[in-house]
């Protein structure tokens, strides 16, 4: 069972980026989750596109951009030029979801769709075969450090059944409110890419990565 933790850079201290990326490399982090916000779709602003290009030089890990913007198509080309490997857009903002997914894929990157806690899986029914990633938001998007919305577990479980029944390739990603006490639940429901922000960056990043990785190994190895 392949399970990864994806550090969410939103919770990192901007003054420590170089050091934190050193830790990511040392701990063999495969994917870094970058939340891009426009202050319109969500009431917050995070990274600029040039920042992403600068950070790209610090690691070979995948850059997984979670676009929390009203007009996602507008940013795709620049993000790809900046070295982004995967882009996830929100189903709630996509006026033409099918077309936007094709647009993402036309750049040869991984294409993902995110859905907020109150959004039903139904909107993805016809696009599952096209997707590399489905992101189940377990908080409302916009901020780190929020509490996990419990019914996200049921949604992950339903999505995992759909994936198995349809033999789809997409990875189930979960984002928001993950901590050492609930990671087992999301994994047992079917999540395989676990985005972690505040629980990873509080206190010692390196020790926290070990803590989560050890917990994952324990989960995988317990029958
Ligand atoms: C929220 C973001 C998350 C956030 C997660 O809008 O999409 O990626 O950084 O942070 P935690 O793990 O603190 O909920
Ligand atoms: Zn995110």
TrEMBL record:
GO terms for molecular function: D-ribulose-phosphate 3-epimerase activity; metal ion binding. It is an enzyme of class 5 (isomerase). A divalent metal cation binds at residues 33, 35, 66, 175. InterPro entries: Aldolase_TIM, Ribul_P_3_epim, Ribul_P_3_epim-like, RibuloseP-bd_barrel. The active site is at residues 35, 175. Binds 1 divalent metal cation per subunit. Its EC number is 5.1.3.1. GO terms for cellular component: cytoplasm. It catalyses: D-ribulose 5-phosphate = D-xylulose 5-phosphate. The keyword Lyase does not apply. Keywords: Carbohydrate metabolism, Cobalt, Isomerase, Manganese, Metal-binding, Zinc. GO terms for biological process: carbohydrate metabolic process; pentose-phosphate shunt. It comes from the Bacteria. Belongs to the ribulose-phosphate 3-epimerase family. This is Ribulose-phosphate 3-epimerase. It comes from Clostridium intestinale URNW.
């Amino acid at each position: 069972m392949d399970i990864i933790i994806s550090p969410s850079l939103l919770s990192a201290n901007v003054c420590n980026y170089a050091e934190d990326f050193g830790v990511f490399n040392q701990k063999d982090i495969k994917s870094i989750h970058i939340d891009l916000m426009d202050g319109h779709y969500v009431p917050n602003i995070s990274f600029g596109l040039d920042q992403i290009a600068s950070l790209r030089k610090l690691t070979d890990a995948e850059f997984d951009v979670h676009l929390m913007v009203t007009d996602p198509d507008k940013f795709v080309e620049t993000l790809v030029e900046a070295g982004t490997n995967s882009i996830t857009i929100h189903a709630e903002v996509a006026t033409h979801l099918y077309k936007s997914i094709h647009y993402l894929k036309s750049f040869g990157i991984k294409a993902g769709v995110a859905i907020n806690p109150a959004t039903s899986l139904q909107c993805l029914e016809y696009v599952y075969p096209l997707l590399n990633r489905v992101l189940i938001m377990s908080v409302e998007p916009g901020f780190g450090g929020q509490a996990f919305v419990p019914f996200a577990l049921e949604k992950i479980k339903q999505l995992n059944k759909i994936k198995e029944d349809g033999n789809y390739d997409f990875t189930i990603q979960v984002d928001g409110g993950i901590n050492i006490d609930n990671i087992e639940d999301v994994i047992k429901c079917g999540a395989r890419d676990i985005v972690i922000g505040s629980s990873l960056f509080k206190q010692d990043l390196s020790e926290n990565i070990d803590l989560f990785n050890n917990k994952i190994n324990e989960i995988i190895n317990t029958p």
